[in-house]
Write a structure and sequence with these properties.
5-stranded parallel beta sheet, 4-stranded antiparallel beta sheet, alpha/beta, 12 strands, 2 domains, Arc Repressor Mutant, subunit A
């Protein structure tokens, strides 16, 4: 079932940009132009996640989230041009789960959305097992198997592989990988990320010249190759 996202922004072009992108990523999207309209949409639409602009007419983002948190704990990511620390802290104190500042990259937004949704998932929710080209990644067991044989990977390598397999067939940019890994305490650069990719390839028995699993898209990032017959 597609996750439902409510985009709250008073700029129509922003609504369309985010909506078109998220629809292409198999999210169900609805938009609201201010806080009052958004409160009504929350009741009727029951979103899984809210993307919230701060500066809006009628009822701004801060006022909206103050009202929202009286009756709902739906995750909220603030999307704002306000970059002052005090503004960001205020949002978190009111109950926001994350924030991203304008201008932003849509792929970065997607990574943050998935992270927030994952953190908000009930503990009892079954975790997916990804199986592609003989590689099976089990989130619940935190295990990786190749053709049924266990592969010993580090937590960081597991997270890299998960992000690549989840986007199988699509390029995942190096910066996007680094951002996603920050949740697990990763503090390295995009350059050191190459070392972790190299180690992961070795454990999977993959090669750079003729990859079966992880393909380098030079100057951009990496792609987990789609299943082959």
């Amino acid at each position: 079932m597609a996750r439902k996202v409510l985009v709250v922004d008073d700029t129509r072009n922003v609504q369309l940009m985010i909506g078109d992108f998220l629809s292409s990523q198999e999210f169900e999207v609805q938009a609201a132009s201010d806080g009052r309209e958004a409160l009504q949409a929350v009741e009727a639409y029951k979103p899984d996640l809210i993307l919230l602009d701060i500066m809006m007419p009628c009822m701004d983002g801060y006022q909206f989230i103050s009202q929202l948190r009286k009756s709902s704990d739906v995750p909220v990511i603030m999307i704002t041009a306000k970059q002052q620390e005090a503004d960001i802290i205020r949002g978190f104190e009111l109950g926001a789960d994350d924030y991203i500042t304008k201008p932003f990259r849509l792929r970065e937004l997607l990574v943050r959305m998935r992270a927030v949704l994952r953190r908000a998932a009930p503990n009892g929710e079954p975790q997916p097992v990804l199986e592609i080209n003989g590689i099976a990644l089990d989130q619940a067991k935190h295990s990786v198997k190749k053709d049924g044989e266990n592969i010993d990977v580090t937590p960081l390598e597991f997270q890299i592989l998960y992000m690549l397999m989840r986007a199988s067939g699509q390029v995942v940019r190096r910066a996007e990988l680094a951002i996603g890994l920050m949740e697990n305490g990763y503090t390295g650069s995009e350059v050191t990320l190459k070392i972790h990719i190299r180690n992961l390839r070795q454990k999977l028995g993959d090669t750079l010249d003729e990859p079966r699993y992880i393909e380098t898209v030079f100057g951009i990032g990496y792609r987990f190759m789609e299943a082959t017959e």
